[in-house]
Amino acid sequence: GAAMVARALWALLAALRAGWCLLPQSGYLHPDEFFQAPEVMAGDILNLQVYYPWEFLSSSPCRTVVFPLMTSGVTYWVIKSLQQLDICSSCINSYTLLVSPRLLFTIFSFILDYSVYRLAPFWGADPWKALVLLAGSYVTLVFYTRTFTNTLEGLLFALLMVLVSSRKSSGSSAEPTSSSLIGVVTTAGFFNRPTFLAFALVPLLYWAGLIVDSQKSIKTLINHFLKLILCACFTAIVFITADTFYFTSVSLDNLYSTNKSSLIDVITQLHDKMVVTPFNFLSYNLNPHNLALHGSHPRVTHFTVNGVMLFGILHILAIGAGFQMLKKYVHQLMLVRWCYRGLPGLLVHSEGSPTLLLFYFVPLGFLSLFSHQEPRFLIPLILPLVLFSASLNRAVKWKLLIVLFNLLGALLFGCLHQGGLIPCLFHLEQLIHSPAPSSHPRHYTLLFAHTYMPPRSLLNIQKTDMHVEVIDMAGAGEETLCQTVEQRASNFTCSDCHIFIIIPGTVRATITKCGVSFKNETLIFPHLSMEDPPEIPVLSSGNWRSQLGLYILELNR
C-alpha cells in the first residue's frame, strides 16, 4: 500500500513538473538562464534582436556552443521549420520562445528520476520514497526545468553516478563496458562547466577503486583506463572543433578555397585558430579580480547559506551525519583501511553510506574554494543528498517540514522572484506586434530599471527591424534614471513614438520625482525584487499589491 501511494505521489509531482513548465513559470531565477543559451540561439537561428553576453563573443569565448545548439538551438530550429512549412503560421512568439527550450530541459530532468530509481537499491534506499523526495523538491520543480548550464551539469553528474555504480548481476564487480561512456560524460561535463571536475572526482575515484579491486589482470586494467582516455580525447576534439568553427567563423569552403589548401594546411589553420573554451573559462575565473566583479562571498556561504536555501533540513541532516561519521570513522578510515586494504577501502558501500556523503561534501568543499558562490552552483548535489536522505528513512520524521519548505521555495522562486518581468515581456511583445492604426511605423523605447536583465529575444523582434529600442538601466540611481527619462521625454522625434518605463513598485516613487507624467500604467502582479525589497510596514498596509508588482508606465508627450 505504501509503495502504491509513493508511486501515485511521484506521478502527480512529475505531472506538476511538466504542467508548470507549460503554464509557464513566471519566476526569473538568474539572467544566466536566458543568456547562456536561449538568447544566443534566438539570435543565431531565428535572427532575432538579442543581447550577446561577453562569454559568447569571439574576442572572449568562455562557453561551449555545443550544448546551447543541442538544446535551445534544436527547439528553435523546430519551431522555425514548423513556421516555414506553414504548419503553424505564428509558431515563433514570446510563449514558444520561452517554453520550448524549458520543455526540453524538463524532459531531460527525468534523467534524474531514472538515476534515482537505478541507484536507490544500490545505496540501500527505497526507490519510490527516494523518487518522491526528489520530485517534491522545489530544486527539481524550478531549477531543473530552467535552461541553466548548472542543470546540464546535474544531469551529467547523475549519469556519471549511474555509470560508476553499475555492477554485474552478481554484484561483485563494476561493469567493464562503462569505461568509454565515463570518458565521454566526464569530458562533456568539463566543457559544459569546468567545475564538473569537482563533481566527477569522487565518482571517478570510486570507479577506479572498484576496477582495481575486481580485475586480476594488469592488461585488462590498462584496457579500461585506455578506453576512458581515448573516448575523453575524442569527445574533447568534437567540442574544440565545434567551438572553433563557431567562434572564428571558419568554414571548410573558405579553408579549401584559399590557394587550394591541402588537408595539412587546413589542419594547420584550424590549429592556429583553435578555441578551447574551458581553459578560457578557468583563466577568467581563477583571477580573483574577475570573480569580484560578479560578487564576492565568504568561503562558508555554500555550507551555511546556499545548502540550506536549496535543500533545507536535508542539508542540515547531512552535515550532522557527516560530523558523526567523521568522528566515528576517522581513525579506521585514515589508518586501518588506508594501510591494509588500499584506496578502495576509503570508498566502500557500507550501511552508514559514507561514500554518499563524500559524493556530496567533496564537490561542496571544492566549490567553496572560490569566492563567488551562488545557490545554483550546488543543484547537481540533489542526487547524492536524496539517496542519502532516503536510506535508513532519515527524512521520514521531517516530512511535514520538508513539504512546507518546498512549498515556500516553489512559491518564492517559481512565482514571486522577479516574477513580473516575463509576463511584462509577453505583454510588450503583443503590444509591439499589434496592427498599426496608420501607415506610419510606430517606434517603441522600452526602458527597464531595477529589474534583472530583460531577455530581448522574448520581444520577438527581427534584427532588421529598427523600430524598437531596449535600454537596460539595471540598478541605476535616482539622478541617472531621472536624467535618462527626462532626456527621452523631451526628444519625441515622431508622431507615433511610445516610451515605456518598466520599474518595480518598490521604486515607483522615484519616477514621480522626475517631473514627467504618464498617460497609461499597467501593474503586473506578483513581482518580488530582492535587490529592492518591499518594507514590511508598507506590505501590512493597503498598498501591498503595488509593492509586490511591476509597473509598465507609458510616458505622456
TrEMBL record:
Localisation: Endoplasmic reticulum membrane
Keywords annotated in UniProt: Endoplasmic reticulum, Glycosyltransferase, GPI-anchor biosynthesis, Membrane, Signal, Transferase, Transmembrane, Transmembrane helix
Pathway linked to the protein: Glycolipid biosynthesis; glycosylphosphatidylinositol-anchor biosynthesis
Membrane topology: Multi-pass membrane protein
Keyword Transmembrane among record annotations: yes
GO molecular function annotation: alpha-1,2-mannosyltransferase activity
InterPro entries registered for this protein in UniProt: GPI_mannosylTrfase
GO CC annotation, single: endoplasmic reticulum membrane
Signal peptide feature range: 1-21
Transmembrane segment boundaries: 152-170, 190-212, 224-247, 303-326, 346-371, 377-396, 403-428
Main location: endoplasmic reticulum
EC number: 2.4.1.-
One Pfam family cited in the UniProt record for this chain: Glyco_transf_22
Any GO BP annotation: GPI anchor biosynthetic process
Record family assignment: Belongs to the glycosyltransferase 22 family. PIGZ subfamily.
UniProt-listed PANTHER family: GLYCOSYLTRANSFERASE (PTHR22760), GPI MANNOSYLTRANSFERASE 4 (PTHR22760:SF3)
Protein name: Mannosyltransferase
